[in-house]
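User: what does the whole thing look like in 3D?
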Amino acid sequence: DTGVSQNPRHKITKRGQNVTFRCDPISEHNRLYWYRQTLGQGPEFLTYFQNEAQLEKSRLLSDRFSAERPKGSFSTLEIQRTEQGDSAMYLCASSSGRNTEAFFGQGTRLTVV
Amino acid sequence: GQQVMQIPQYQHVQEGEDFTTYCNSSTTLSNIQWYKQRPGGHPVFLIQLVKSGEVKKQKRLTFQFGEAKKNSSLHITATQTTDVGTYFCAGRATSGTYKYIFGTGTRLKVLA
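Assistant: Here's the predicted 3D structure for the full assembly of 225 residues, as structure tokens:
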């Protein structure tokens, strides 16, 4: 499978715990996005990487969220001190250029209990 | 901040009827993309529009980008049960941003 891969697919965590998600984009794609989607809503932009550089981050994103893409390949999204409001589907997408289609992964569904 | 709204929120149609969803941005867009998300699935890219007034067709789907590059529409002719899903537009503003703002989506149900 050469698509965008996200792990884990599901994560249940207790409030206050830290969680980390991983995204492996399509190998030749240098652009990577993280989105968050709640039920009945469209994906909400979180952050954008071009190669290893984090070029844009949502102003709505609290400082409990951090993302990295250390070698310009896979990316991780960490949420510290999780809250119930963080429960959502976290989607990763990659693309090969600024005005090209984005390919989404299957997402990681986070449930904070 | 930039907002993208879609109407209607829901649409139920009989198989064979036409369907249209409208997308409106609060700011002028550099380009707009359309995605389809099946229940339980992830968004899948359909098309991208870049030019003012652009119209593109994919079989039964027709996509338009408004002259002012602030609105767009997706029209499906003679819907089929395989068209079921939520349709999202996603626009990127012209102001030097990389992010795409997704619309609120239109959920389509097709009754056989």
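In plain terms: The mean pLDDT of chain B is 95. The interface with chain A takes residues 1, 4, 30-31, 33, 41-45, 48, 50, 88, 90, 97-105 of chain B (CB under 8 Å).
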